[in-house]
Specification:
alpha/beta, Uracil-DNA Glycosylase, subunit E, 5 domains, 35 helices, 46% helix, elongated
Length: 725
């Protein structure tokens, strides 16, 4: 006699186990050899979509549309986390005058902010102003310069163009003399923009970098009166005419005859290199471009300085410099130009500056940022970082043929994190799955490393190791508890106890212990996955099933896709409403790891946290949880083809917290344990007598997993109808 629910092994049971093992031995039938052409076309189409829409490591729109290429995305993200000093230094890497531009920049970056499609752009310029205004003490200018060079440059005009040109040339190691006809430097920043728009203190604070860099400043010197252009050219190796519009006209009217005029009565200079028709003489500013914005004038000054440096170094001047033409946008906004400008009006300098932002507002704006930098997928995905420089690189290789890239194709986690991070929803994992299907149809896959996975897959759908049953004492079931493969294979006791609990809540609920087919689909074995789902279809139809209660996040995702006619519920949501813990762990602190397959199931996330708190444990959130969760590495079967990559992926996930972790996916628990992190399944917390000890238990081996499935199956089949409470 045995206790209810406890498995007593008989000779017949052992014979069944032997038959089952013989049924899953070997490689099985050869892969179906259908024509690979349709799948090849599908792979190429998906690769082309990535090549068309992905910009690789290109800048976000805000950076791409900044004339000075300031990484606005980065400093907004730094400001969001309160790292204000780092954010300000990020700005100063490209822009030495953050305070000035924080007040007078027309912010073209905001007109192309992706957030503008939803409501309004991130207040990038105002964040810049906050950072500059909140800097304590003396400004921390970036004063590092290249080794001193013998050449001497003269910059005529100390407006926005001339200031940035002088700054860049000095940091390149040249001796620089800055000349202006006014008594103080700044040009229009000093003479035309009123105090209530650009405070004098802000301007002086930023312009103090000119003295700090050791640039010689000569004010009150008029070109053509106090100093001739010929004298400048004689005494300096290069001369940069960075004049305002009026200054350029005065020079042309002086009859110097050295520079040429355009039909617009401006100084002619090459639009790419800023080179005039005179060797060693460059021109920029409003005298060349006509009246323009402060930031555009600065960009022209930077371009002229770069050309002057190239001239002195004997380099080619006709180059695609950083300010000659903007890079292509990562994505076009889905609103027209008029609507864009309506939502984000370009500021007018004759209006008072807006009220300064508070620290709370800056952090709030940072939270609104969509973080659409186009290297996020590579930064957050270990697979992409290891196998390519960008999704474009990967797509290009796969489109060219998969024969030499099978290991790469089978190293992806297929966790969809890339699609979550991508502003245009590009999913590299889908491309990898399509490539795997092509490999199978061509007979290139599955790989030898996948042999054991296929054996377990066949076991999961075999009559020996599977079960479809109504509740004890019943013939039909409108609801079924779908256990999946992993839970019965690793925790037969928890499987039985969980089903017993569900039966007490609903005595009519049946059980379905089947593989959902996702391991086959991950390997590219469409036919095997379809056969697994056919068995589920027959079982649910025979039993009259309308709803499945699912324990495994991966199973739930797969069933949701292939069985839209069935209602799906998470067992964790059911437990969160009904579980009455027998033990409490008030001193236990657990970091929650959300499986990647539950990425878009906020109800499941909430239920798990409710269950943990119900047991008295404290929930600790990591930086990568909920929809931003990182894959543990087990879902894509990466460990079979690239164990080192799997180890890095698992280590990254396990390193998100120093605390023990709790998860609700058996695969995640296994991977995190292998990475050295004490990890429990949420059922260990609910049902184990000591969940901490459970976290240290070794994982079940292959043979043990098969035995556990049989134990789970026979324990459930021997259950008696629940006793009414």
């Amino acid at each position: 006699m045995h206790r209810p629910g406890r498995v007593t092994w008989t000779a017949r049971d052992m014979l069944r186990l032997g038959d089952g093992l013989r049924g899953v031995r070997g490689n099985g039938r050869p892969p179906e050899r259908e024509s690979p052409e349709p799948m090849r076309r599908r792979v190429v189409e998906m690769a082309d979509r990535i090549l068309e829409r992905c910009r690789g490591e290109g800048p976000a729109n805000c950076e791409a549309r900044c004339p000075l290429r300031v990484d606005a995305h980065l400093y907004v993200q730094l400001a969001r986390t309160g790292r204000f000093r780092e954010a300000l230094q990020t700005i100063r890497e490209k822009l030495p005058f953050p305070g000035i531009l924080g007040y007078v920049c027309p912010h073209p970056c905001e007109l192309h902010c992706k957030r503008l499609e939803l409501d309004r752009a991130i207040r990038i310029r105002d964040i810049k102003r906050f950072l500059a205004d909140s800097e304590p003490g003396e400004p921390e200018h970036i004063l590092t310069c290249a080794p001193n060079r013998p050449q001497h440059a003269a910059v005529v005009g100390a407006g926005p163009s001339g200031l940035l040109a002088a700054h860049d040339l000095r940091r390149a190691g040249l001796k620089v003399t800055l000349i202006d006809r006014e008594q103080q430097i700044g040009g229009c920043l000093t003479t035309r923009i009123p105090e209530w728009r650009l405070p004098t203190a802000v301007r002086r604070r930023d312009l103090s970098i000119i003295d700090a860099l050791g640039i010689e400043v000569r004010t009150g010197v008029r070109l053509g009166h106090d100093l001739s252009l010929a004298e400048l050219r004689t005494n300096h190796d290069v001369v940069l005419l960075m004049l305002g519009f009026a200054g350029g006209q005065n020079l042309l009217r002086s009859g110097a005859g050295v520079v040429e005029a355009t039909v617009r009565d401006t100084i002619w200079a090459d639009p790419v290199t800023c080179e005039t028709g005179v060797e060693g003489l460059f021109a920029g500013g409003d005298a060349v471009s006509g009246p323009t914005s402060v930031i555009d004038a600065m960009a022209l000054g930077r371009r002229a300085a770069e050309s002057a440096r190239r001239f002195l170094d004997g380099e080619e001047l006709s180059y695609p410099g950083p300010a000659t033409s903007p890079p292509p946008l990562l994505w076009e906004l889905g609103i027209d130009e008029s609507e864009r400008r309506r939502r984000e009006r370009t500021p007018v300098l004759l209006e008072p500056a807006p009220a300064p932002m508070t620290e709370k507002e800056v952090r709030g704006e940072g939270e609104r940022c969509l973080d659409c930098s186009c290297d996020r997928c590579v930064r957050d995905c270990e697979f992409l970082a290891s196998h390519c420089s960008s999704p474009r690189d990967l797509a290009r290789r796969v489109a060219g043929g998969i024969d030499d890239h099978l290991e790469t194709v089978y190293s992806c986690n297929v966790c969809s994190l890339c699609a979550t991070l991508c502003p245009v929803d590009l999913n590299t994992g889908e491309l990898m799955l399509a490539a795997r299907r092509e490999a199978v149809r061509r007979g290139l896959a599955p790989l030898a490393e996948h042999r054991q996975i296929r054996r377990e897959l066949r076991a999961g759908v075999s009559n020996t190791f599977s079960l479809a049953s109504a509740a004890p004492g019943r013939r039909h079931a409108r609801r079924l508890f779908f256990t999946g493969c992993e839970l019965p294979a690793t925790s037969p006791g928890h499987t039985r106890l969980l089903y017993e609990h569900l039966l007490r809540q609903d005595p009519r609920i049946g059980v379905l212990m089947f593989c959902c087919g996702v391991p086959a689909e991950i390997l590219g074995l469409e036919a095997e996955g379809a056969r697994a789902r056919e068995q589920i279809t027959r079982a649910t139809q025979d039993l009259g099933v309308e709803e499945l209660i699912v324990a495994c996040p991966q199973c739930q995702e797969t069933l949701r896709e292939h069985f839209p006619e069935l209602r799906l519920s998470s067992v964790w949501e059911v437990l969160a409403e009904s579980w009455d813990p027998t033990q409490r762990y008030d001193e236990l602190r657990l970091a929650v790891h959300d499986p990647c397959r539950s990425r878009h199931d906020p109800e499941v996330h909430a239920a798990i946290r409710t269950l943990v708190r119900t047991c008295g444990a404290e929930v600790i959130e990591t930086d990568y949880s909920h929809e931003r969760t990182r894959c543990c590495g087990s879902g894509g079967k990466v460990e079979t083809v690239d164990p080192e990559l799997f180890a890095r992926i698992a280590a990254r996930a396990s390193g998100e917290s120093e605390l023990p972790m709790v998860t609700y996916c058996v695969g995640c628990r296994t991977a995190l344990r292998e990475a050295g992190r004490e990890t429990i399944h949420v059922l260990d917390l609910l049902m184990a007598s000591d969940p901490v000890d459970r976290a240290r238990e070794p994982e079940a081996g292959v043979f043990t997993r098969l035995v556990n499935r049989l134990r789970s199956k026979w324990a459930i089949r021997r259950m008696a109808p629940p006793t009414p409470e």
